[in-house]
Amino acid sequence: MTNWPEIYQYAQQAIKEAGQRVRNALNNELKIETKSNPNDLVTNIDKETELFFIEKIRKDFSTHSILGEEGQGDELQSLEGIVWIIDPIDGTVNFVHQNRNFAISIGILENGKGKIGLVYDVISDELYHAASGQGAYMNDTPLDPLKPVSVEETILGINATWITENRRIDPEVLAPLVKRVRGTRSYGSAALELAYVAAGRMDAYVTMRLSPWDFAGGCILLDEVGGIYTTVDGEALNFLSTNSVLAGNPAVHRTILEEYLAEKK
Ligand code: IPD
Ligand code: CA
Ligand code: CA
């Protein structure tokens, strides 16, 4: 029998310890490299933090698999067994440019089902955490179940990219939604943005391309507060590949899907 309370405790301690290491590392000069394009940054701290988790989990839970953004974990073809999906630094551009507004994100799944979600805002020392069936918390404060809000009252997380010329969506699809909502926000860390939806600080979040490590932790938080997440086509997210993501309060999620995205070209 898997001891989930033990894994939950363990994961919280590990993410806090990793966060302390990241805070300490900010006193030293970062080694910054680019990946797929000049704006896709990675630092020595992203890689070292990922390795910290991998070495720890392999030592203490040798049967668990690890999917990490920096590729030092396992190459997974399936979500069978217990899988840790880890983004060691989500919001690396913020990490490099602002030294804040980034998070460590962990989702732990069992046979594809979300069991534990953690998103740690390292600088604010805010740990959003949830275990399946036990509610979600920010540090020790329980997060309330999401209450219905109208689109007019919605704070929408969206990057301006998606309402300008881009390769993934006609800018005309989401521009009217941006006009209709109360306000838009873009924080530059998908994991934090999903945690903010779970915490009711935003009501919805939409983006056209995320990887499993960007959304795994946040989605498990959303499960515990009654949040909904799908692709922009309304399909279930695939935790082994890239996806578009529409997450939010159920009422707002449905309206965005039906009134805006169903017609997308
Ligand atoms: C990125 C952030 C960003 C999102 C990008 C991600 P990274 O993650 O979550 O908000 O828009 O798509 O790649 O590279 O900083 O871990
Ligand atoms: Ca990320
Ligand atoms: Ca990352």
Automatic annotation (TrEMBL):
Record Pfam families: Inositol_P (PF00459)
BP-aspect Gene Ontology terms: inositol biosynthetic process; phosphatidylinositol phosphate biosynthetic process; signal transduction
Enzyme Commission identifier(s): 3.1.3.25
Keyword Magnesium: yes
Keywords on record: Hydrolase, Magnesium, Metal-binding
Transmembrane regions: none
Flavoprotein as UniProt keyword: no
Co-factor(s): Mg(2+)
Binding site for Mg(2+) 1: 69, 87, 89, 214
Domain of life: Bacteria
Reaction equations catalysed: a myo-inositol phosphate + H2O = myo-inositol + phosphate
Binding site for Mg(2+) 2: 90
Name of the protein: inositol-phosphate phosphatase
